[in-house]
Design brief:
By secondary structure, the protein is of the alpha/beta class. It contains 9 helices and 7 strands; from the N terminus they run βαβββαβαααααααββ. Strand 1, helix 1 (about 15-30) and strand 2 form a beta-alpha-beta unit. Helix 1 packs parallel to helix 3 (about 110-125) and helix 1 crosses helix 7. The protein is globular. The chain starts with a strand and ends in a 15-residue tail after the last strand.
Length: about 240
């Protein structure tokens, strides 16, 4: 039966997007191969913002890499953020949960690795086909690059995809990417025409930002000072300085 599965995930985020991809594959392999997975991207709003109950409109409602909801319609939840609970009541609600479907561990660098680990250990899911995606989600979300240059050169598929996820003006980009990440290698995803086209444009903007920051930065006693207020920089990669 093709039950509807609503997967809410942290949007504009490699880890959130990867978590949604891993969950969709996990659910189809271990619970319902015919599941109709639909994806809803979420971004953080003002402190104290609450969930819209209408969001949980499916047979199975899921949140990955985002704040907890005490809604009785929430079926699955995975998160690793220290700020996972909006209120003490939410935290207590989670502690009382006995569904066996809600998981939290702030010691993990990424939700993707946490989710894959739980799925393997508790539900006999094999995350091996997604090992590269899991590894890179952990590197990117945990800022565990081998060097500062590796974070900004974007010469590997994972960082190219991450740029598209974080900087694309297409609001549907992540929801288009999730099924691809769940079924293809990162190298295959990076050369998909809709990904490659976005990357070329965004990388040019990124390269311009690197040059602007380079020309307008000074380092004193280990602190980088920069002022780019006179330049048309629409945000820039935080690792550039």
């Amino acid at each position: 039966m093709g039950e509807k599965v609503r997967i809410c995930f942290h949007d504009r985020c490699f880890d959130g997007t990867a978590s949604a991809a891993v969950f969709s594959r996990f659910y189809r392999e271990r619970f319902n191969a015919a599941a109709d997975c639909q994806f809803t991207g979420l971004v953080h709003g003002p402190a104290g913002a609450v969930w819209d109950e209408r969001m949980f409109d499916a047979d199975v409602n899921v949140i990955v890499d985002f704040k907890y909801s005490s809604s009785p319609r929430l079926t699955w939840w995975f998160d690793h953020h220290q700020s996972a609970f909006l209120t003490p009541e939410d935290a207590e609600h989670f502690r009382r949960d006995r569904s066996g479907r809600k998981f939290y561990d702030p010691t993990y660098k990424s939700c993707t690795k946490f989710l894959a680990t739980v799925a393997e250990e508790k539900f006999q899911f094999s995350a091996a086909p997604l090992a590269e995606l899991v590894e890179w989600a952990d590197i990117i979300d945990g800022a565990q690059y081998e060097s500062p240059e590796a974070a900004v050169t974007m010469n590997v598929p994972a960082t190219q995809i991450a740029l598209v996820i974080e900087a694309s003006n297409d609001d549907r980009m992540t929801t288009r990417l999730i099924p691809e990440l769940a079924s293809r290698s990162l190298a295959e995803v990076a050369v998909l025409p809709f990904v490659r086209e976005q990357f070329r444009e965004l990388y040019q903007r990124h390269a311009n930002s690197m040059e602007i920051v380079r020309r307008n930065s000074e380092c004193h006693r280990g602190v980088v000072y920069l002022d780019v207020s006179d330049f048309p920089v629409e945000g820039y990669n935080k690792f550039i300085p």
